[in-house]
Amino acid sequence: MEQMIVIVVFAFCAAVCVKLIGEAHVISTRNNDIKNAIITVESAAECFKALSGDLPKIAGILGGTYNEQSTLTVYYDDEWHISNQEGAVYIMSITPHNDPTRKPLITADILVRRTTGNEIFTLTVSTRGNAYNSGADANSTKGGADE
Prior knowledge:
It is built from 2 helices and 7 strands; from the N terminus they run ααβββββββ.
């Protein structure tokens, strides 16, 4: 009888340990995703500012595609290397805002999410357009991470 109690206690402790290890892995993966998303978004924001919001040029530098809806999209695999759409795990998109009241500023949202739709990180960035300067006078306005 005592051996049965010891076995039950051991099984319970083992189950708790396995659960903790699983939760630690999920937290580690999420933190790694956030870290890499921030680095990716910061690089895209710097390109956006340096090129004064010229999305076709930015697409060439970042290895993404620019479509008729004025959205730049870059696909990444599970190790954050540029990928095609079929092999993608993460998607970064840059979507500009057309707000005539904010001219000469060009503003865009830079978003990184999983292909499953879970948003990882977003940043809104603003810069002066090509007609006003070379992009040297630019600033970021807000950022945030979501789970």
